[in-house]
Amino acid sequence: MEATTVIRKPIVTEKSTWSSSMHNRYCFEIDRSAGKTEVKRAIEELYGVRVIGVAVQNRKGQMRRGRFGYWKTSGAKRAIVKVHPDDRIELF
Asked: Which pTM value belongs to this model?
């Protein structure tokens, strides 16, 4: 799988920004079929950093209720990537 198909987009929230500045961990939304080793190779290829570890979360979609009934939001697979202390990803 190509690196650009493994990594869909970076997740920029208050919590992920704090984690990137304090602990050098970055959060990305990834493809559902991607594994930890594929994510590690893709991050190293795209951003040119050394990856120490990868943690994966498989987030389930939620039921939402509105004026016109119920619907389910789509789930997402996330990867939290720990980068070597000497390296930084300038995107965040």
From this structure: 0.84
What average pLDDT does this structure show over 56-80?
94
Residue 45 · residue 3 · CB < 8 Å: yes
Whether 34 and 77 have beta carbons less than 8 Å apart is answered as: yes
Token pair listed for 26: 């970055």
Enclosing domain of residue 15:
3-83
Domain total in the chain? 1
The domain that holds 62 is classified in CATH as: 3.30.70.330
pLDDT of residue 92: 57
CA pair distance 89, 43, nearest whole angstrom: 10
- Based on the number of CB atoms within 10 Å of its own CB, is 35 exposed (0-12), middle (13-18) or buried (19 or more)? middle
Bridge partners of 30, per DSSP, are 7, 77
Residue 64: inside a domain, yes or no? yes
Q: Is residue 33 part of a domain?
A: yes
In a domain, residue 52? The reply is yes
